[in-house]
Amino acid sequence: MYLADTRAAGTTKGKIGRRVSGNVLALGMVSLVTDISAEMVTAVLPLYLVVGLGLNPLQFGLLDGLYAGATALVRLVGGHAADRWRRLKAVAGIGYGLSAASKLGLLAAGSSVPAIGAVLAVDRAGKGIRTAPRDALISLSSEPESLGRSFGVHRAMDTIGAFLGPLVAMVVLWGSLGDYSSVFVTSFCIATIGVLVLVAFVRDRPPTEGPAKPVPVRSMLQLLRIPGFRRLCGWAAALALISVTDSFLYLALQRNFDVSTTMFPLLPLGTAGVYLLLAVPLGRLADKYGRWRVFVGGHLVMATALGLVCGPFGGWWIAACVLVLHGVFYAATDGVLMAAAGPWLPEHLRASGMALIQTGQALARMVSAVLFGLAWTLWDLRPTMLVVAGCLLLVTLAAAVIKPWEKPA
């Protein structure tokens, strides 16, 4: 349904307003608020764990892998539950609520690494539960030919939150004289607002096709029988395996370019700013010229960024280029992959299918974080980055050649 057809957004003007559903905009607002909360914590956590608590790269890799992988299996649970009971909004709300509650857990965790790991696992479990139903809502609320645009608008709004989160954290730390507890409490309050926005403004979109009875578990796995979707899942997981998590990338920039601890929380802002500017244009480009082409191009950009991190050149401008390329990577891959997957999936299994592809990525990133931390510990940073950049380039070129065909919108 178009935005012009919804009462709540009947006064919205302009090209984006005519083509993007009001439900997508409401979900974007939920993500915007939630990401402010999440990024308040994420912006300071890597430096706190490595510099403050003295974790070595392998220990941090294990924790970062847990952070990435905790969403894996619960994504399947969330996606299946949403499709089984045709309650996309309710399942997404449970995930948002769980992540909000976890912010208070950081108050009790203190400096205990195992406790922090457990809290992060709960937070990521909430993210895992909500992501597939939320993306299915976006897909079901959009016209097939404009999926890339809809996901681009949502991701752009999400990124506004990611951009504001570190700034809010710095203001709170400044106002509280460096009290991290104030950051956690403020983060919880903001996350709660996100849940309230979901309840008040997002409308559920039950599928109009498929069986009325609950969907069995085997229906999710049977989606892998669709050749195009199966290839999409396989390449997405393979590319995620040959990758570097955000936390490791920022730590590498901090080490190689001597970024001060005061400026470290601002590094994600460079990525977020570029992502914000390019999410919608690259989504439209993907709709017009092919979503897989844009997705693969994003990984070529990422391989270039990793090469710059470990290259022979120094200076702030190299670090700035890396952050710009990192933002381009996310704008070309995150929502674009979900837009590419949508047309392959029947409406009554949309959340389940998106959960499958996201789970493969999450498991691959978990393994990637651990292996990268181990390699950094054994070989040091520069050779590790060179190996990962080279492998990512090779796998990306293979994905460009042996590509899954795209199903027309």
From TrEMBL:
It holds the Pfam family MFS_1. InterPro entries: MFS (IPR011701), MFS_dom (IPR020846), MFS_trans_sf (IPR036259). Coiled coil: none annotated. Keywords: Membrane, Transmembrane, Transmembrane helix. Its main location: membrane. The chain crosses the membrane at residues 24-51, 57-78, 159-177, 183-202, 232-253, 259-280, 292-309, 315-341, 362-379, 385-402. It is found in: Cell membrane. It is a multi-pass membrane protein. Residues 23-407 form the Major facilitator superfamily (MFS) profile domain. This is MFS transporter.
